[in-house]
Amino acid sequence: MSANLKYLSLGILVFQTTSLVLTMRYSRTLKEEGPRYLSSTAVVVAEFLKIMACIFLVYKDSSSVRALNRVLHDEILNKPMETLKLAIPSGIYTLQNNLLYVALSNLDAATYQVTYQLKILTTALFSVSMLGKKLGVYQWLSLVILMAGVAFVQWPSDSQELNSKDLSTGSQFVGLMAVLTACFSSGFAGVYFEKILKETKQSVWIRNIQLGFFGSIFGLMGVYVYDGELVSKNGFFQGYNQLTWIVVALQALGGLVIAAVIKYADNILKGFATSLSIILSTIISYFWLQDFVPTSVFFLGAILVIAATFLYGYDPKPAGNPTKA
């Protein structure tokens, strides 16, 4: 049973990671008549879906509407300071979600997937500085290999110059800056959220409701500031189609699915999931989206990133001993 759950976790992790990146990329480069959907509104809708999903999960644990109301009242309304702590990571996550749309509007899925693995580096550095974690030799070595791999992937090539002529690919530099900023925001927000979870006993679902609440507020502020004129002209759901709703659902529910199954997935399994996702994104970008031509330098970089992912999760100590990291 345990082995089956591990393989199920692997499948879900690979599916969610790969499908979100590819559908988001496709939806941002698809040429259709009429206005394109606004990424700022998609982020807000995803937050609302996440809140509804988490309320449903809390309801399942509570077994009645009255018990649900009591839990939400006691854990959220009666603890305003605890709730306010989530405003910081929520604002950063909202920024990160918007940046991912910018990145995938300007980078092919394969390059994005590999480069975004720099979040391992930023998460490690913030864990050391904020949580006092200690990294082993293998982990520091993996971070160096990771940086080298991403540098190779971003190395200019003739295929990138050809891609830059395609109007749908946008600016490579803008995409790269968006991914790098998202990596730093992901690292900081993730470690900050982990610190909050360790300091309190509230459930992950309650914490996600709090995150979603602030995320919706910050997201609506972003819609008003950046796309207010377009929304007033063409409506909040302008350009939405079936593909847009799939992207929104994957973004909203994907993290919750991963949170639910991650307890069955060890570091090696997560390394497999990352590696398979990168490989699938590369293959599908080349054959289906046709916006990416892999080079030998890209393959070298991708192999280094995959190796670094496995090495970071490697524990040389015998089973049963506690890890330092």
3D architecture notes:
This protein has 325 residues and is an all-alpha fold. The protein has helices spanning 2-29, 39-62, 65-77, 80-84, 87-106, 109-115, 119-131, 137-153, 158-164, 172-199, 204-234, 242-261, 267-289, 296-312. It is globular and about 60 Å long. The two termini are 29 Å apart. The mean pLDDT is 83.
- End-to-end Cα distance: 29 Å
- Give the percentage of residues in beta strands: under 5%
What is the helix tally? 14
Gyration radius, in Å: 20 Å
What's the overall geometry? globular
> What's the number of extended β-strand segments?
0
Global mean pLDDT = 83
Share of helical residues: over 70%
- Class of secondary structure makeup: mainly alpha
**What's the order of the H and E elements?**
HHHHHHHHHHHHHH
Please give the largest β-sheet.
none
Unreliable segments of 5+ consecutive residues:
none
Secondary-structure map with pairings?
Layout: H1 2-29, H2 39-62, H3 65-77, H4 80-84, H5 87-106, H6 109-115, H7 119-131, H8 137-153, H9 158-164, H10 172-199, H11 204-234, H12 242-261, H13 267-289, H14 296-312
Helix pairs in contact: 1-12, 1-13, 2-3, 2-11, 2-12, 5-10, 5-11, 6-13, 7-10, 8-14, 13-14
Task: Considering the chains and any ligands shown, give keywords for the structure.
325 residues; globular; mainly alpha
Give a quick summary of the entry.
This protein has 325 residues and is mainly alpha-helical. The chain contains 14 helices and no strands. The protein is globular and about 60 Å long.
